[in-house]
Amino acid sequence: MTDASVSDISGIVDFAVATPELTHSKPAPDRLLAGTPEQKTRNFFSDSTGQFFAGTWESTPGKWRVRYAESEFCHILRGQVHIEDERGNGRTFQTGDSFVVPAGFIGTWHVKVPTLKLYAIFEAASK
């Protein structure tokens, strides 16, 4: 879905009633470290600049390398993930937790149990 008029109520996206397309994906083989994670994304909102997105993402268990060009706010609705940086420092997040992964983060995502999250992503325009 794309953004609507920003001057009236029609521009508000209600996740409870919107029906965005479901996209299936898997981590790229060169990034996969463990498991066979399958991911589903529903992007409920994209702004007109192509820099801001919001929706839901879910994944089956697995572990893969990540490199963030964007900043991402996450809220775990169900499940548990462990995120680790390149130095081996990690944090576990589970149902009810909210966090931000800043642009420039390099490390791993490890989905321990099937996980569903809300996301809001901002990716700065290329210079």
Write structural notes for this entry.
- The protein is an all-beta fold and 127 residues long.
- The protein has no helices and nine strands.
- Strands 1, 2, 3, 4, 5, 6, 7, 8 and 9 form a nine-stranded antiparallel beta sheet that branches.
- The protein is globular and about 45 Å long.
Head-to-tail CA distance between termini:
26 Å
Helix count equals 0
* Percent helix range: under 10%
The total tally of domains equals 1
List unreliable stretches of 5+ residues: none
Looking at the overall shape, the CATH architecture is: Sandwich
- Estimated structural class: mainly beta
CATH class group: Mainly Beta
Strand percentage: over 45%
Radius of gyration: 15 Å
The name of the CATH topology is: Jelly Rolls
Overall number of strands: 9
**What is the CATH superfamily classification?**
Jelly Rolls
Protein name: (S)-ureidoglycine aminohydrolase cupin domain-containing protein
InterPro entries: RmlC-like_jellyroll, RmlC_Cupin_sf, UGlyAH_Cupin_dom
Pfam family, one: Cupin_3
Organism: Povalibacter uvarum
